[in-house]
Amino acid sequence: MTTLYWIIAATFAGGLLSALIASLVLLLGDDLRHRLIPHFISFATGALLGAAFLALLPHAIAKAGAENIHLLGAAVLAGLLAFFFLEKLVIWRHCHHDDCEAHDPHGHDQIQVGRDKASGTLILLGDAIHNAIDGVLIAAAFLTDVHLGVMTAIAVVAHEIPQEVGDFAILLRAGYTRMRAFVVNLLVGLTTVVGGLLAWAFLEQTRVALPYVLAVAASSFIYVAVADLIPGMHQRTQARESFAQAVLIIVGVLVIAFSHEWAH
Predict the structure, then answer these.
(1) Structural domain total, the chain
(2) How far is 260 from 264, CA to CA, in rounded Å?
(3) How far is it, in rounded angstroms, from Cα 232 to Cα 230?
(4) Which pLDDT band holds residue 90 (cuts at 50, 70, 90)?
(5) Over the stretch 41-51, which tens digit does the pLDDT of each residue have?
(6) Contacts for 238 with CB less than 8 Å, ≥ 6 apart
(7) Could you tell me if 130 and 217 are in contact, meaning their C-beta atoms sit under 8 angstroms apart?
């Protein structure tokens, strides 16, 4: 039972501590926060792509084995298509009563509002999956060695903090109030505990499905970054802002890359 207590404590820290630290951005004044959010969005784009391509997918491939690489590719494709249809559904639910395209000659403003709301929904879903996987990894580490488990939990907190900051920016842009963004992020953080407990109880079964869950989580991060965040960034066309976007995307990728290397 001692190992179970370690797993519960570490997954609480991994899921909630990172969200609490990242939530400090919510304490900023409205004007400062609105000026910083575009930069957080750029950073989040890099962090999401880095997490997908440098962490989730490599782990999925390593765990599934070369013989199952095509199944992993199918899981990523299925995830991308599923998130496309889910986003369409969210946009349709937001717009169909008001007929977005009837109120705006091109429907751009209302459709962008719908896309922002959809990206908020998708990022929460992707984060829930990702956090649950973090819980599984933390539990697996503790079941191997307590010291390894502690180091893994610390690494999870370290690489989750910048990603959570980006998530807050996405949720605020999607129309969430600061309090609602804070509450839902904490609730999503609890999926780390759920993943840890499931892994403790059914580790062998979860290992079988783990690569494909990782692949779907990666597809959600890729879709949000490429389909939702980058198009909005292209609307800011000044050279100075474009340069800042490029730098912050690279910084987001590098932070995830370095924290992931530290975890290993």
Answers:
(1) 1
(2) 7
(3) 5
(4) low
(5) 888 888 888 88
(6) none
(7) yes
> What digits encode the pLDDT tens for the residues 46-88?
888 888 898 888 888 988 888 899 999 999 999 999 888 877 7
What number is the average pLDDT over the span 178-189?
86
How far apart are alpha carbons 9 and 131 in whole angstroms? 15
Task: Decide: 24 and 166 in contact? Cβ < 8 Å.
Answer: no
Q: What letter represents residue 189's amino acid?
A: G
Q: Which tokens in the block code for residue 32?
A: 């400062």
- Is the CB of residue 130 less than 8 Å from the CB of residue 51? yes
The two tokens of residue 105 are 């000659």
**Which residue range is the domain that position 211 belongs to?**
2-263
Can you read off the two tokens belonging to residue 23?
Answer: 């939530």
How far is Cα 132 from Cα 158, in angstroms, rounded to an integer? 16
Pairwise CA distance, residues 255 & 51, whole Å = 10
240: DSSP letter: H
